Amino acid sequence: xxxxxxxxxxxxxxxxxxxxxxxxxxxxxxxxxxxxxxxxxxxxxxxxxxxxxxxxxxxxxxxxxxxxxxxxxxxxxxxxxxxxxxxxxxxxxxxxxxxxxxxxxxxxxxxxxxxxxxxxxxxxxxxxxxxxxxxxxxxxxxxxxxxxxxxxxxxxxxxxxxxx
Length: 164
Ligand SMILES: [Zn+2]
Hints:
Blueprint lengths: L7 E2 L1 H6 L3 E7 L10 E3 L3 E10 L5 E14 L6 E15 L15 E5 L4 E2 H12 L23 H10 L1
Parallel strand pairs: 6-7
Antiparallel strand pairs: 1-8, 2-4, 3-5, 4-5, 5-6
């Protein structure tokens, strides 16, 4: 099977023919995520669907599911993020009018239709949009921060010694 990074589609054709492609790829393929990841373990499963509606408007539906190890913005440790996206993208052919934002369904985002659309780039764009802005563990400390609760008190150590 072709590597995701090599898959280029003619997006209008893909939509018009209502094609469907599916696969999975390692998280490390998402190079633009490098800064926000604690590590690149794991993989993502994806589906790309072409759609043509009754008005002959053309769409690409991008779905991706998997787990990302995001970097916690407080302790810089790994934070597991369950990613599940489904984006419906309206293809706007070159030279065609861009859909009016106010009138359009806000569940649909317009994108420029390309002859050589990289599926990986498209999936990566959607993943980036779906990430939390400042991911943090519900409770954690800055590295090096010590509020005394994690350190063993010298008295506790002493008490332990006395028991034996
Ligand atoms: Zn943290």
